[in-house]
Amino acid sequence: MAARAAQAKALGCDGIELPAAKLDLKTTRTVLEETRLPVACIAAAIALEARPRHDQLAIAELQKLIRLAGELNCPLLRIWDTPSRSGRSMHAAALALATVLSPLADLAAEHNVLLLVENRISLRTADSMWNLMEATSSHPALAVAWNLLIAAKSGEGPLLSVPTLNSRIQYALVCDAQLPATSAHKQSRRNGELDRPAYRAIGAGELQVANCVSRLRGIGYEGWIAIDFDPTLIGDIPDPEMYVPQALIELRQWSTPPAAKIPKPRAIRL
Question: Quick one: which of 142, 65, 140, 34 has its CA closest to 97?
């Protein structure tokens, strides 16, 4: 983790996202004090199945992480949505997940933590995440972590998703990519190839990252925008030493409101 934090600082990042796996309170505090880098979010690859007997271990782990996030003064904890199940609609999945999340959100509120649900697995679109938030009665300790790529793979762009979810988005994950054409996509699935897009530098793909940032700015968003950078996909994108700084330049430019135009003084006849 120390190397990860040092690299993030060297690349010019304003904060770091910490993976929940093997997160230790004492070590984490030491690293953060040394790097003086804020924790944007703790990310847990946990997806609740919304079935009590299957979720016991996951719920216990999330309770532990919520308390840990509170002790680290990290206000954001991100998890995945729920796995899809045969015969269960997205609406039903949202209702079932809301039942499990509500008591966890209560615990998060006690520790000044906002529990974020990412549109990762089955609840990929804005309307399905909206249904989830509605089913929890818009719990104040529960919000959306919006993944631009996942939504795009479901055919939804930021011009629809961001205004729909609006202030319920409290964390944003962006990258850029070239999505596979439908025919090529089907052929790759038939051939057993990995189903994934071709990653590109920020602004060089088709995910409308600039539009996403613009729409976030339009709804008054002031939260983190995380570069969804996967080192295992290095073959598709430039070296991180080049990719991340350039991405930061683009994102900071797009997230900065244009300077107000100063009107030219009009002549006044005295």
Answer: 142
